[in-house]
Amino acid sequence: MPLTFDDLLIRARALTRDGRRAVLGIAGSPGSGKTTLAEHLVRALDEAGAPRVAHVPMDGFHLADVELDRLGRRDRKGAPDTFDAAGYAALLRRLREEEGGEQGIVYAPGFERTLEQPLAGAVPVPPDARLIVTEGNYLLLGTGAWARVRAQLDEVWFCELDEEERVRRLVARHEEFGKGHEEAVTWVHRSDRPNAELVAATRDRADLVVPVTAMPRVDPAT
Q1: Which of 56, 67, 150, 191 is most exposed, with minimal Cβ within 10 Å?
Q2: Can you tell me whether residue 22 is helix, strand or coil?
Q3: What is d(CA 9, CA 111) in angstroms, rounded to the nearest whole number?
Q4: pTM for this structure?
C-alpha cells in the first residue's frame, strides 16, 4: 500500500506515545513542499486534540541581510553558511531538555518572507507542547555545526518531489515574493540548484522518504 498523509499522522503521533516531548524534522530541497507538509501535520494534529504541537521552522535562523553583506554572502543567501546553524542546534537542544514545565514558553525566531528577514521571538513554543515539528533544507547535513542538528531530532522525514515540478514551484514562489520571472529563474539555477543538490545527497540519512502521493496539495508559496 502506498504511504498516505493519514499514515504520516499516525507516525507523528506515535513519537509522543511515552508522554515525553519529541522533535520531528522534515527535510527536503527548496520548493519540495516541506513547509506545507509541516503546516498540514500541525493543523491536523491540533484538530485531533492531542498531542499539543508547535511548528519551529529552520528559516528563522537565516542570517540578516546586513550580516550577509558584511560577510560577502548576500548573493548566496540560502546556502548552508548563510544560516546560524549552531544557534538552531542549540534551540533544538533547549526545546528537548526544558520540555516546558517551570521554564514556561520558549521563543524561537521566525522568518518574514515579504521582508526576507528573520524575526526574533516570533514563534512561541508552549510548555505543554509534546511534539515539535521543525523543517528546513539542511537537517541531515553532516558538516560543521549542522552535524549537531540531527542528534536533537527523534525522526527526520525527507520530502521527495519530481525535479521539474520542484523547480516550477520554486520559480513561482520567488515571483510571488517580488522577483521578476527572469530574475527568479536565474536565482533558482544559480543559487537554489547547488543547495538542492547538496540537500538531495542527504536523502539516505532520513528515517522516512515521503513521496508526493502522501503530500498535501502544495501551492507555489510553500
Answers
A1: 67
A2: strand
A3: 26
A4: 0.87
